[in-house]
Amino acid sequence: MRRLLRGVRPERARELGIVIAIIVVAAFFATQIPDYLSGRTFVRVSTSVAIIAVVAVGQTLVVLTRNIDLSVGSIVGLSAYFVGTLLASNHSVTPPVAIGIAIALGAALGTVNGLIVAYGRVPAVITTLGTLAIYRVALVESSGAKTVTTDSLPAWLLDIPRTTLIAIGDLDLRLVVVAAIAVVVVFQLMLRYLPFGRRLFAIGSNPEAAAVAGFPVQRDVFVAFVLSGALAGLGGFLFLARFGNITVVAGQGLELQVVAAVVVGGVNIFGGSGSVIGALLGAFLIDLLQESLIRWQAVNQFVGMALLGLLILLAVASDAVIFERVRAIRARQRRSRDLASDPAAEVVVHGA
Amino acid sequence: MARRLAGQLASWEGLLLAILAVVVVVNTASAPGYLSLQNQVNLLVLSIEKVLVVLVIAFVIISGEIDLSMASVMGLAAILVAWLWRAGVPVEVGIAVALGAGVLAGLNNGFWVAVVGLPSLVVTLAGLIGYRGLAYVLIEDRSIGNFPGWFVALGRPIIGPFPLSLILFAVGLVAAVVILQYSGFGRLVYAVGSSPEVARYSGVRVRRIKLGLFVASGFVSALAGVLIAARLTAVRGSTAEGFELDIITMVLLGGVSIFGGSGRMAGVILSILVVLNLRNGISLAGFSGNVQTAVIGALLILSVLLPNLFATARGRLRRRALGRPDGGESIPASVSG
């Protein structure tokens, strides 16, 4: 076991762990629910994950900087409702324009968060707990209790969630799923290779050191919030396409699922470590569990939420306990390697 | 004398007092019945469960932690009483079970935070989801009411216009002031919040204090949940949902630092009065509950943003006084450019 752990980076181990958990969950429910391992289950889970995953990518950027964005559920709702109303009244709006408006609206709301957190130095929990309420109220008050209905929307929009891009046997890979995966890949590469992405890790690991090193800490945190808002706006568009009927409570509570996906996906809530792919896997595990629990006759359908709380706790606890151990093993390994290559170091250690 | 008065007014409590005065004057001018005893009692009773929890959350935040799960514990307690009552268990037993569940919830939060050392933000966020989920498992999409008369009477006035919850709040308030401001335990809470390491090396049992505060938070939240069940006479899955916004706003607006170690009960009491009178004034002026929520959200942000901006401005002025006129401007410019 120890030898196995030695070669893996902690994040990779976490991602592997979630993949194993997904397989275990799927295997278990396959024995419980008839017709479970079908293309239908895959399509339902994957299209629902697409929305959460896009928003979770933005959340990952924010959490990496040791912040949190609790307002994403309200941004998704506002974006879905606003774009839905626009499309219902004006069918000539083209898809790129509609998507652009959704992203721009989200980015504007994220800008407000970012300004208050990065430049006003208000803790992110406080700021986004406040804007969570304010954005939702803005939606409720501006709607005049009207709802967006499916039949008022243009046909191209309703076709989006049904469009299959690639079909592998029984498995349909829907357009929205491919789009979500594209977003994940782009941001994973950005975090990996762009200076901005690398700086987010540095800021989250040690904000003071990052500032001393001359990184534009405030600007980077601000940009992370703007991107989180923009992706939540895009999530709102996907939400609109998937559900069609949008009321003022659209996306309410979505922030909890998104934060859960990010935390379960191994992004450290204290910032500095984690990956976008982890967040995607976390979202998939959570959605698979929830979808399966609803279809499982043996338990009450409301059990999903309670289990979600437990899952977050387990994820964070395993972070603290297991991965500390992995890091300790790796550190010991590195130390013994240093000792082997540098006899002087041994003297120092003996001296100490 | 004048300088001392100015110093008092410049303090956070002075600012709150001034805001409260403005709110009261505006409300009195716009709504005739506002200052009547009945209206004042009403505006307090409508939020009494929240302000009860505010008292204990102030301790938790001063100790440097946060509890986001309190509204879900309130809901779980209320739903436990209702669910057991529907299952044929007497309400007295239901109340005992609900309070016990609150203690357990607090122990669970406290264990992960104080003993294992996980961040309280995530632990209690998991609690927020998990306890609410547990409540929904019990009540599903039903609404449970028809409680016995004596239980419902708990939510009605018992002495003059005052219901039991208000009397409990008055007792809790005195206890909170005495414990936080005048007892050794209160000083330990401040010590833990300003620097857990220093407190630990000074022999303070940091873990035990934090665990105790989380248990107290769970117990008081459960008590508040029982009281809200009595006052509303019917309980649903969403009972007390979203209360964390109001509760945390009242604590932070009272001048308690989110980073722990500072804040005073006097400020918290004033902020409770400001928030409740403001809510009352907004509703008397004919605006919906939604507008109230938006104002509370804005207050939450401003209660931290304004002191920060003041501090920045003061630092800039001081630097200017020291003869470096451009020092204040050049730093932010380089950061944002």
- How many angstroms separate the termini of chain A? 31 Å
Low-confidence stretches of chain A: 345-352
Helix content of chain B: over 70%
The residue-averaged pLDDT of chain A reads 87
CATH topology type of chain A? ABC transporter involved in vitamin B12 uptake, BtuC
Question: In CATH, what is the class of chain A?
Answer: Mainly Alpha
What's the oligomerization state?
heterodimer
Helix content of chain A: over 70%
Strand content of chain A: under 5%
Total of helices of chain A: 15
Radius of gyration of chain A: 22 Å
**Annotated CATH architecture of chain A:** Orthogonal Bundle
What is the CATH class designation of chain B? Mainly Alpha
Could you give a short account of the major beta sheet of chain B? 2 strands, antiparallel
State the order of secondary-structure elements of chain A, H for helix, E for strand: HHHHHHHEEHHHHHHHH
Query: What structural class do the secondary elements of chain A suggest?
Result: mainly alpha
Placed side by side, the strands forming the largest sheet of chain B appear as: 1-4
Largest sheet entry of chain A? 2 strands, antiparallel
Secondary-structure element order of chain B, as H and E?
HHHHHHHEHEEHHHHEHHHH
Main-sheet strand order of chain A equals: 1-2
Task: Please give a structural write-up.
The complex is a heterodimer of chains A (352) and B (337). Helix content of chain A is 75%, strand content 3%. By secondary structure, chain A is mainly α. Chain A has a two-stranded antiparallel sheet with strand order 1-2. The relative contact order of chain A is 0.18. Mean pLDDT of chain A is 87; it is low at 345-352. In chain B, helix 5 (70-86) packs across helix 12 (206-232). Chain B has one domain (34-312): Orthogonal Bundle (ABC transporter involved in vitamin B12 uptake, BtuC), CATH 1.10.3470. Chain B has helices spanning 2-10, 12-30, 37-45, 48-62, 70-86, 91-116, 120-139, 149-153, 164-182, 184-194, 196-201, 206-232, 243-253, 265-284, 289-321, 327-336; strands spanning 143-144, 157-159, 162-163, 235-236. By secondary structure, chain B is mostly helical. Helices cover 76% and strands 3% of the residues of chain B. Chains A and B meet through helix 6, helix 11, helix 12 and helix 14 of A and helix 7, helix 13 and helix 15 of B.
